[in-house]
Amino acid sequence: MDPVSVLDYRYGTEEMRAVFRANSYLQALLTVEATLAEVQEEKKIIPEGNADKIRKGMPKVKRERVEEIESQINHDVMAVVKALEEQSGESGKWIHFGATSYDIVDTARALQHKDAVNLIEKAIEGLLKSLANLSRKHKKTVMLGRTHGQWATPITFGLKMAVFTAELNRHKERLNELKPRILTGKFLGAVGSGAAMAPHTLEVQKEICKKLGLNEPLATTQILGRDRIAELIAWGSNLAVSLEKFTTEVRNLQRSDIGEVAEAFDRKKQVGSSTMAQKKNPITSENIGGLARVVRSMLYTSYENNLQWHERDLANSSAERIILPQFYILLEYILIKSTNVFSNLYVNEERMRQNLENTGGLPMAEAFVISLGKTKLGRQEAHELVRTITMDAEKKQLTFSEAIRKNQIVKEYIDDTEIEKCLVPDNYTGHSEEIINKVLDSL
Fold this sequence. Notes:
There is one protein chain. It is built from 18 helices and four strands. The chain is mostly helical and 443 residues long. The protein folds into three domains: 6-94, Fumarase/aspartase (N-terminal domain) (Fumarase C, Chain B, domain 1), CATH 1.10.275.10; 105-140 and 149-186 and 222-354, Up-down Bundle (Fumarase C, Chain A, domain 2); 362-422, Fumarase/aspartase (C-terminal domain) (Ribonucleotide Reductase Protein R1, domain 1), CATH 1.10.40. The strands form two sheets. Strands 1-2 form a two-stranded antiparallel ribbon. The chain has a two-stranded antiparallel ribbon with strand order 3-4.
């Protein structure tokens, strides 16, 4: 069968796809039903000897049979129950005892969350490692800083990467904070009261969640509050913004007129453009940007899904079938793609130095404001003096370096040695290396 979605063949890893395959979801549902029976047997809610037969019936349940039953009864969870019942003999009558559909669905989804989050965490660690390596390697690689798209003061490429590293690590910390809320099951029945299995419901819920490695909720309606999923997707959307920001920096620095970094490019085989044969485009970074926007687009739906009538309606269900697999598959994919970009990034240190030199010393203006400001001239007068020198230099078509060296007022306050010191970009990177080390030590 030809795939419809690009998630099946173009974007995503098979490992993450496998978490959300129809058969994987079915197995999660069956696992929850079997675990429910085991705990109920332990609590003597159902007769002894039935849970094992229900568990052994699981491997015999086929998705095709579940779909056949669903086409007849128009209920997805009851189709699973009936299919499992067929494979469990007389014990089948005890399947789903005291449960409501979303006791099973939400708990099964939590198992999917657990597997998917593990893969996301692995991908985050890969990107953290790549960014940290660049930070470490380029601690002393001086380049132009830029604000508002204009030359600013010097920075090191290592510091630029350390800022990205620290930001990604904050996303990792946020994920750790929200994991307990998303990795939660529930068994509180049709309206959240737990009436069907009372007085044992809370004990049953606790034991099932413990067996499945999940947390138990404090209170629910028929379903877990969708604020949990909204929080997850808001977190992922925030991360997607960062990934697009990081790779947009690559795109900007790869511009022909800047040329300070570049994505890896296979010179022997890769084609940059169908018409412009010379092109080497930052296509991976651009791809990440586009898919990051798709991830963020799911945020609106996730918030809407938390709007429920009374103890629940069904409006969230269809939307979640779409957005949850897409969210996880695309987020992991752009994390892995970002790792590929930064692990293989070409850093053109020579071009960084050339670009600094081609500024004619203009980015060092602040260094002179600080140096002159420490004299009797004072900070405000120093700023005005340096500003005037930059304007005059532009008018007379001089470089800033030439103009500052010739200025007699400057020479009244600082000597030639100080002037030359202030013109060296390497002397004006401040605490860059110390900050980089702090970031690396925090990982």
